[in-house]
Predict the 3D structure of the following.
Amino acid sequence: MKNVLFVVDERCMGGVSVLLMDMFKMMDTSKMDIDLLVLHDRGDMFNELPSNVHLMFGDSYFSAIDLTLKEVIKSKNIKTLYHKLKVIVDLKTGLIKKRIVKERKKLLKKHYDYEIAFKDGFTAIFTAYGDSNVKYHWIQYNYGIANPNSKYDKLFNDALRRFDKIISVSDGIMRDFNNIYHLEDKVEVIDNLIDTKRIKDKAKEKCDLELDKNKLNIICVGRIANGHKGYDRLVDVVKRLDDEGLFDGAVLRIFGSGPDYDVLFKQIQDYGLDKKVLLMGRVNNPYKYFKNQDLFILPSRYEAFGLVIVEALSLGVPVLVTKNDATGKIVDNDNNGLIVDNSDEGLYDGLKYLINNRDVLDRYKTNLKDYDYDNDSIVKKLNGLFK
């Protein structure tokens, strides 16, 4: 039996949490005893884990590790502020490595054959300074946009070289990562494993949402963070189309929550679109709301992978997505969806085209009856990491 440790920073709803649960379910873990360490207990995911996966939590030292000092002060939590100041001192004095070793001894009561940092940032540093036989680091961040590790600078550079292998979830992420760190000999691309059966089963649950079948029903699902997901520019596009009289026969529903929810709500109200763009909030099972939808839109300014695109396609819903490294690999352009230029104008042209050509959406839907995400080759690669 191999002892395996996965490390993440938190357990909030999102792609990383979902992908990790799919890995546990679909990989061959019959000869593994797995511990899942969540460094700071934020969120409510990982409540339904396989019997051989044991959930653990970091202690209070890690509660503020990835928060900015401004965020901590705003929280008005004295204990969190104390731990943040301790982290700052440890980083400034170089004592952070010793602190990590000390905290690991307190948390981890056994030796691991494999240890996986399943997130960028401090998660990777924590894993790198462990004594496991083999260490892997999963990178899932778009390094062409911003570097999530820049705050740790030299410490992270040293940590990366301690990993046996670095796994990227796309060719684009690998390219941008290597442009910064030049670790071509360590990086390997393995696409994300996605349990499409789980998605289809959840979609069968009863849905209380009634759709007007005479309208073009459009759905978005994701975290409402405009700088990343681009919902603000999508609403701008809808406003433009509505002013031209082209959106009267359509309704856009956005499922999710996030830091820009109130900002997006105000934008919709200011534009007078509250009957045509509906904020549905966060739901536990978004998949059941894909039923009978005509179109899924992902207006992201950047994406590492785009898990939700695969989810939509698996449920037979055509997609309109902005062009980036992730979408080009997932979407068969003008066959099961439309890839547009990553700009306001690109979104406008694409949505206008599909509104005016409903027969194109019908063709996409027909083609999606044969859609199949290739999990078999991904499972084979993943199992090979733990021989």
Observations:
- The two ends are 11 Å apart (CA to CA).
- The mean pLDDT is 90.
- The domain at 196-370 is CATH 3.40.50.2000 (Rossmann fold).
